[in-house]
């Protein structure tokens, strides 16, 4: 089965004060940290930068897919939909650009957990808190289910989980440090 990595970079970054996907940490843009960790995991066949029209030319030689014009500002599901539309039947490792400290071994765990649970989608959680933009999505009808959800006004990635078969993988139970999974919304949250 083809596995596509998706790096989400199309957010507004309003709390951060500038586009966080391009903000440099240790001399490297935040999105590139995430791209590299997904690549280092060894579980993807290809990695796509999912972004908006404004940022589409900011990612060098990386392959970019822009959100559908009719689905701008709908959050992570818009990016997932645009990539799922181009690669139907694939499974997708979704990681937001503002989680640059995730260990690449976690991406391997998501893939392994999906295989252990008969190909279910797998969402990262920390005790009762979900990390919905660190997930593996697989459903043979994912593109159509996303279209139905988005066209009915659904914007919440969490409410979309009701439409697909989902398993959860807990970072605490797996022995990982919760600090590595921080979603950076403000510069003060950088390590």
Automatic annotation (TrEMBL):
Top-level EC class: transferase
In the UniProt record, does the keyword Transcription regulation occur?
A: no
Similarity comment: family membership = Belongs to the MobA family.
Instruction: Give UniProt keywords alphabetically.
Output: Cytoplasm, GTP-binding, Magnesium, Metal-binding, Molybdenum cofactor biosynthesis, Nucleotide-binding, Nucleotidyltransferase, Transferase
Its EC number is: 2.7.7.77
* Cofactor(s), by name: Mg(2+)
Q: Domain description from the entry? A: The N-terminal domain determines nucleotide recognition and specific binding, while the C-terminal domain determines the specific binding to the target protein.
Chief localisation class: cytoplasm
Q: What is this protein called?
A: Probable molybdenum cofactor guanylyltransferase
Single GO MF annotation: metal ion binding
SUPFAM superfamilies tied to this protein? Nucleotide-diphospho-sugar transferases
Q: List the CDD domains.
A: MobA (cd02503)
Entry superkingdom: Bacteria
**Reactions the enzyme catalyzes:** Mo-molybdopterin + GTP + H(+) = Mo-molybdopterin guanine dinucleotide + diphosphate
Xref: PANTHER family: MOLYBDENUM COFACTOR GUANYLYLTRANSFERASE
Its biological purpose: Transfers a GMP moiety from GTP to Mo-molybdopterin (Mo-MPT) cofactor (Moco or molybdenum cofactor) to form Mo-molybdopterin guanine dinucleotide (Mo-MGD) cofactor.
Asked if the keyword Metal-binding belongs to this entry, the reply reads: yes
InterPro entries in UniProt: MobA-like_NTP_Trfase, Molybde_CF_guanTrfase, Nucleotide-diphossugar_trans
Coiled-coil residues: none
> What is any one GO biological process for this UniProt entry?
Mo-molybdopterin cofactor biosynthetic process
Name of the gene:
mobA
Question: What cellular component terms from Gene Ontology apply here?
Answer: cytoplasm
Q: What residues does the MobA-like NTP transferase domain cover? A: 5-161
Enumerate the residues binding GTP. 8-10, 20, 67, 98
């Amino acid at each position: 089965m083809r596995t596509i990595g998706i790096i989400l970079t199309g957010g507004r970054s309003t709390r951060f004060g500038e586009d966080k996907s391009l903000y440099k940490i240790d001399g490297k843009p935040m999105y590139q940290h995430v791209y590299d960790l997904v690549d280092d995991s060894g579980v993807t066949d290809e990695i796509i930068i999912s972004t908006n029209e404004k940022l589409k030319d900011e990612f060098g030689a990386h392959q970019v897919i822009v959100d559908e014009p009719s689905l701008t500002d709908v959050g992570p599901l818009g990016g997932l939909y645009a990539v799922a539309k181009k690669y139907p039947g694939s499974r997708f490792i979704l990681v937001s650009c503002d989680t640059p400290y995730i260990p690449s071994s976690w991406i391997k765990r998501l893939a392994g957990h999906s295989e252990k649970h008969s190909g279910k989608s797998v969402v990262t959680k920390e005790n009762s808190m979900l990390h919905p933009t660190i997930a593996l999505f697989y459903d043979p009808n994912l593109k159509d289910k996303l279209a139905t959800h988005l066209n009915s006004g659904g914007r919440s990635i969490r409410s979309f989980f009701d439409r697909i078969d989902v398993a959860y993988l807990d970072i605490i139970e797996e022995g990982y440090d919760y600090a590595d999974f921080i979603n950076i919304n403000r510069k003060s949250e950088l390590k």
